[in-house]
Amino acid sequence: MSWFTFSWQNFLFSFLALAFEGLPFVLVGSLVSGAIAAFVPSRIITGVLPKNGFLATLASGLLGLCFPVCECGIVPVVRRLINKGLPLSCGITFMLASPIVNPIVAFSTFAAFRSQAPWLNLGIRLGFGYLVAVLAGLAVRHLSPKEILREGAVKIVSRKRLAFQISPLPDATSSDLESSFTQKLVAAVRMTCDDFIDTAIYFMMGAAVAATFNTAVDQQIILPLALDPILSTIAMMAIAMVLTLCSTSDAFIAATFVSFPLFSRMAFMVFGPMFDLKLFFLYSVLFKKRFVVCLGIGLFIGIGIISSRFLNLLYASQGP
Amino acid sequence: MRAKDHDTPRSRRPTRGLASLLNGLTLVGIGIVLLDFFFTGRVDQYLHPQFRPFTLVAGIIFCVIGVVYGAAKPSARCCLDGECVHENATNPLRSVIAILVLFAPLVAGVALSKDSYDQRAVLNRGFVQDITKLPMRANTVETGAQSSQATSSEAVSEPLPQDTPIGSATNDSANPAAPDSGDGSAQYLPKAPDGNVALEVTDLLYAEQEESLRKIVDGKTIEVVGQYLPAEDAKQFKLVRMFIVCCAADARPVALPVEAAEQIHAPEMGWIKVTGKATFTQSEDRTHVVMKADKIESVEPPAEAMLY
User: Fold this and answer.
1) Pick from A17, A186, A208: which is nearest to B47 by CB?
2) How far apart are CA B277 and CA B218, in angstroms?
3) What are the φ/ψ torsions at residue B230 (nearest 5 degrees)?
4) To the nearest whole angstrom, how far is the Cα of B135 from the nearest Cα of chain A?
5) Do A172 and B80 touch (CB under 8 A)?
6) Which of residues 33 through 92 in chain A touch B, CB cutoff 8 A?
7) Among all residues of chain B, which has the CA nearest to that of A14?
8) Contacting residues of A for B118, CB less than 8 Å apart
9) Residue A112: how many CB atoms within 10 A of its CB?
10) Hey, which of A161, A220, A271, B201 would disulfide with B241, CB 3.0 to 4.6 Å?
């Protein structure tokens, strides 16, 4: 059998399933984004974070604990928060960490691995996800926002603000304060809709690509790689990228790849929520293509090395 | 607050209004598609039950915000000064792209989708023939035996007791069809109207792991519903059910090997009911089940085509 056998029937079934599952969550993210834009002053966004950029990046990785947004809905929220004055490094840390470091994912991971050292795997997933997100955020601090952000995706009012100093945008003018609740609500709805359209266009393109790979590629060709630590890690991250699973349920899938070692399954559960085919397109709403590609490569290499080198040893020290 | 585009020339206002209208219609259209899928029940073929309510809620919200967006004055502000990220929000071209990328594929998919996979997807994903390779939730296999009653119009057997002990100690899957003792437990097995035991594909694969369940089904006539997947040998085939965690995109084919006395004539991936006996053979590493079919007949797809 050929490694690639496309069928419209399979493509449409998988594509619609991804769309029906993901669009409500993109909508939720857009609703949150619209509400933030209309009702939350910039000073609140920036006021909750430490003034020190390094500490702020560390804190941003934990925002998902009280503000859980899955990867489908995170992009419009992050774009809005950056517009509200959140430093770019904090935004990227939040974007990468939130789909993993949140209570829903913690619960599902524990449940999925309840017969396979659940506390250990839960701790490693959250800790590993947080670490990678913070490292990515810190790495971005040394880059120019112009090199990263797509033109027009964010209104760059102050280079300093985006250059990782925490300073809120000028808040609403006096006439803002006089706006009625209804006016603000209508504005929130309009911003929600525009955010949704911006984001969902990319989401649908990602779903189409994912559905093609998901149904047309013979996934059995990857399974023989399970025996090698490095190849198994690469294979699991490749599977995560292709399957484009929701982070709230991917642990249930990961737990079933029992022929693969735990550290490579952990790579699956950390890399997948941070970067997959769908997210490649979604991130393009906010970032330049070149940065998105670099981010994907960086995450792939970083997570791959940590998993196959360090987690490998950690799991080995825990015994069989 | 100043509107973002107070200075927009009058000549651009009609296109701005057109863009708003098109965007609003796109959102309402998406909402209608979601609601249609929910109320016609087609969503059941695509999503795990936990995700289905989101379709309903999202459908309603899409309709509401689409109407508000389309009806609100185009001159109403989009974003606050200095924060607007929708540079092309009033561009009709963007609205047309939104229709083509968001709405048109959904409508085309809804119109053309057969709500199932064909044989190629199953082969590409590979079979699961070992129940321990499936994601195990507390209700995973519970739904197996019970759903044959809940979804098949023919099955009328009593529901399994909720406090039936969980079966396996080697893995923590729960299967009410696998009581902890053999004697007398068979009364809890779901029955079809003709008295046969009605099981799911997953139940028989579970029996590979569970000796008490093997004893219960041993010698009994069993009915199993699934999709027909032919093998090279014309008298052998696989009975397939798709197992999902959240949506059909993550479906994994679960396959039960079946042997028939005669050559089978059924459409590929068509729904069939196999009546026969389960036989278990021991190999070096584990027990394998094979269904020996006495009777094979085409049936309507069950209301819940997916197992979860």
Assistant:
1) A17
2) 8
3) -70, 155
4) 5
5) yes
6) 37, 79-80, 83-84
7) B249
8) 7, 9-10
9) 25
10) B201
Each residue's pLDDT tens digit, A229-248? 999 999 999 989 988 887 87
pLDDT per position as a tens digit, A35-59: 887 888 767 777 788 888 899 999 9
Of A133, A125, A93, A132, which Cα lies nearest the Cα of A107? Answer: A125
Distance CA B250, CA A213 (A): 12
Rg (CA), chain A: 20
Which residues have a Cβ under 8 Å from the Cβ of B174 and sit 6 or more positions away?
B138, B139, B140, B141, B142, B166, B167
What was the pLDDT predicted at B135? 65
Q: With the C-alpha atoms ordered B32, B249, B166, A114, is the resulting torsion angle positive or negative?
A: negative
Question: In sequence order, which residues have a C-beta less than 8 Å from that of residue A24 and are 6 or more positions away?
Answer: B34, B54, B55, B57, B58
Closest by Cα among B190, B31, B209, B217 to B136: B209
Parallel/antiparallel/unpaired status of strands B306-307 and B287-298: unpaired
- Give the rounded distance of the alpha carbon of A162 from its chain centre: 20
Interchain CB contact of A245 with B (< 8 Å): yes
Look at A121-125, B164-168, B272-276 and tell me which has the smallest mean pLDDT.
B164-168
Using the 8-state DSSP alphabet, how is residue A184 labeled? H
Q: Are strands B197-199 and B222-230 parallel, antiparallel or unpaired?
A: parallel
Q: Is the pLDDT of residue A94 over 90?
A: yes
This prediction's pTM: 0.79
Query: Which residues of chain A neighbour B134 with C-beta distances below 8 Å?
Result: 256
Q: Which two tokens stand for residue B296?
A: 């094979």
Residue B57 one-letter amino acid: V
Tell me how far apart the alpha carbons of residues A200 and A207 are, in angstroms, rounded to a whole number: 10
Q: Residue B78's Cα: distance from chain center in Å?
A: 39
A61 and A133 in contact (C-beta within 8 Å)? yes
- Return all residues near B48 (Cβ < 8 A) that are at least 6 apart: B244, B245, B246, B247, B306, B308
Please check the confidence at residue A170 and state whether its pLDDT lies above 60. no
Nearest to B55 among A24, A84, A255 (CB): A24
- CA–CA dist A108, A121 (Å, integer): 11
Architecture of domain B120-307: Beta Barrel (2.40)
User: CATH 2.40.50.140: which residues of chain B?
Assistant: 120-307
Q: Are A9 and B117 in contact (CB under 8 A)?
A: yes
Find tokens 């966004």 and name the residue: A45
